[in-house]
Amino acid sequence: MITRRSLLAGAAALALPIPSFAASKPLKVGFLYQAPRDDKGWTSKHEAARIKVQEHFGDKVETTYVENVSKAPDAERVIRQMAQSGHDLIFTTSFSFMNPTVKIAAQFPNVKFEHCTGYKRSANLSTYAARYYEGRHVLGLISGHMTKTNTIGYIASFPIPGVLRGINAAYLAAKSVNPDVQMKVVWINTWFDPGKEVDAATALIQQGADVLMQHVNSPAAMKVAQDKGVHAFGLAVDMSEFGPDAHLSSLMFNWAPYYIKRVQDLLDGKWVSEDTWDGVGPGMVEFAPFSKAIPADVIAKVDADVKAMSAGTLHPFKGPLKRQDGMVWMTDGQIPSDEELKKVNFYVEGIQGSLPT
Amino acid sequence: MDFVAGILVSLVIAATPLIFAAIGELVVERAGVLNLGVEGMMIIGAIAGFAGMVDSGSAVVGVVAAMAAGATLALLFGLVTQVLLANQVVTGLALTLFGLGVSALFGQRYTTYSLDRFPRIDIPYLSEIPLIGPVIFAQDALVYLSLFLVAAIWWALKFTRLGLVLRAVGENHDAAHALGYPVIWIRLGVIAFGGACAGVGGAYLSLVQTPIWVESMTAGRGWIALAIVVFAAWRPWRTLLGAYLFGGFTILQLHGQAFGVSIPSQYLSMIPYAVTIIVLVVISSESGGSRLSAPNCLGRNFQKPK
Amino acid sequence: MLRLVPRQTGSTWMLWSAPVLAVILTVMAGGLMFLSLDVDPVAALGHILLDPFSTTYARAELLVKSAPLALIGLGLSLGFRAGVWNIGAEGQFTLGALGGGVVALAFWNVEGAWLFPLICLGGIASGMAWAAIPAYLKVRHNTNEILVSLMLTYIAVLLISALVSGPLRDPEGYNFPESRMFHASAVAPILIEGTRAHIGIALAPLIAVILWGVLMRHEIGYGVRLFGDAPKAARFAGFTEKGTVWFCLLLSGGLAGLAGALEATGPLGQLVPDLPAGYGFTAIIVAFLGRLTPLGVLVGAFALGVTYIGGESAQVAMSLPAAVVGVFQGMLLFFLLSIDVLVTNRVQWVVPAAAKIKAGP
Description:
heterotrimer; A: about 350 residues; Rossmann fold; six-stranded parallel beta sheet; disordered N terminus; C: about 350 residues; mainly alpha; ABC transporter involved in vitamin B12 uptake, BtuC; 15 helices; 2 strands; globular
């Protein structure tokens, strides 16, 4: 006879965890994207890495993603949903997710969180970012050689340290091979706005730039460069298809080695909160194939510098260096610490124009 | 010389979408209808044009698709306001919201495409005149079309029967109806025309200016077009002036930066909007003159007397 | 053929069933849209309509999302009733967030129970100030408030970006364009523990009741209603257009500003350039859905909250594009506007006059 008590007892029995099942449960890893996962830019690289993680670990790991989460208050809700739905590790891949991630990490101490390009950490929240400036050093070397008008144009987003480091590194490298070079920067106050990027690129070219660099996310500038017959570097993905003649190379990120390492750490029980800042050495920063238009000796120098940066014998910001306002930043032979690098909010001496506010 | 020519060329490119959208809306408003959904019609034209060109490889197909899409969305507005007598202001807003959403939805699969350069037409000899040559005579077909459209509409409104009827409908729809003109059909017709124009304006962005599709890429240009119509006091040639002014500010702001001007870009970007407000005030407070030039029946739905 | 014939008096039954019908039609059209996208319509609609009610947190989020929509919608509904078209609520919302945020940041190292009310006042005042511009220009120069308030919205969005990237930046934030996080005294008090449901969810119904009282019982509310129904009679009765314009714009500006301050001190907890979230425009739909009455607006805000939370849930669960929410909201408004014609008109089958004559003796 089915009684209420026997029903309840039966339900309780079914709810008991079965240890052997729990042991083979795959690790659930979630990824949060601000843009569509195939944006051919920043997010698509994270997605590519996610796919590599899934391939590498097979059945041991189950990866999920949520794309197009553009506002921070909504991000909080989504991250919480992920944390509650059994995820063990969550990667939040945009700076704007920092505060929501911090908040949810505090509420779910058993879930591990990784935030990209942020600066707040806790026991279960790590941060990671790429040393773009090492890549920019390479781009600067090439531009110094390739520019005929001695003017490099830079389309920049926000005057945050990461962007400024890139500008400074590119300029210093270009100047080291071409003392007459100058750099013009246009700030468009957004990471992604093809309309503005087109206008900025056009304005820079009209002002004499014949090599363009960008710290914004669409191939619009590359197309303009192709149209107007100048050169340009892409960002995040290989942008050669948008500018077959213009494209010199693209500065790209490869998150797969890092993601695989962290997932493995978690599987091995070795995951701890840390701050990872990798560059060309560990392969987090890479380059799209260099254009045939670049002379062989320049490529040779690039290779040498990349090896040296990986080995730690070359630093793009080795002194003597002055800030644009004349103050000394690095003395002769001095190398900035990571802490000092994170505080860069100025142009180095020689770059024209002033920073927005 | 070249540098100035370059800036002027950028100016023309920035102004052209505004010209299309504004001239279309001008015709609609002259007939007494206030369609606030210009932004929605532009963005739907942008995605339709982009999709059309991507899928068919032909720029003409893209432009036609943009016109059709803009006109269709506009007719939805027409149906709801002219036949179902809904409030024009709110329906226009609904059009904008709907257009932005539908275009984003439909545009999902087009976010990774990029187009070849839109064909440019260099008029022989004339395009070699220094300075004005490249600016006026070496542009793409749509720029020439926009200028032709403004001229044609000016001429039609002023000298043709159709223009007269249209203006009559806008000034006094009851009298026009009494004279036997089909007010509703005429308005539906101009609404569709306005939609097609706005659609082409939007397509200019996705086919020529930035040949990439991005959600909401019109970035408020539809609203500026509405302001330009008022700025122009509903007179066709003045829309050109308004469009070049607005386009101009956007370009100048960027060049200012490249020159080293240190005002934050957001403040510079505010200028066109602030100027619009000032112009609106000047236009609306002039007694007589401009205030009278607003079509009398603007915004009011026509209901057949019993 | 079918003809629309004006009714003698508006149909109240139709007035209140129109939104319900509109919702049903939207759900059906949405289902068709999903089918055309190769998406399971039942599953998608299930997520959109049911998920917001599934857990306490979800229900709380629904309230958190509905609160600003309701606050803004309440202000707009009065204005629309009187023919004052405030389309710039988004800008007033943004200014309110700025105003409240500036107060919070000014006292960033000071605690006290007085700070949060002050922040709210700052938000209300800045929203009102921003709405005062179109009000003044309309009253003084007869300038169209639709375009002015709209242009001001764009300026407001640029302004918050400029300020947050500059003077309001967190000094310890490595130059990132965002303000400090608001401290304990500056954060909106939470009403339901474990959720983000802040005091805004209680303020909205409270203000709705107050506004209902004003609309129905107070002289100024009478003026608003009269201007909507019979402008000549209103003037005859001694109400001035100027007074009504000022009242409606300041009220909606203040409420939008309050919503902005609550959003900044509530779910967001700081000022960011991205703050304007489109609520000012969605609230227009809310006002119409709610038939321009305060209590209707509350229901309308709730309904649209469902589209936001449910839409996001469908996105997460089924990888649907984010644009789905916008399409749903646009469709809802279209259907509503179309059905509304039946409030003031009847459908009649009319035999054309020519046929009648031919059928004569």
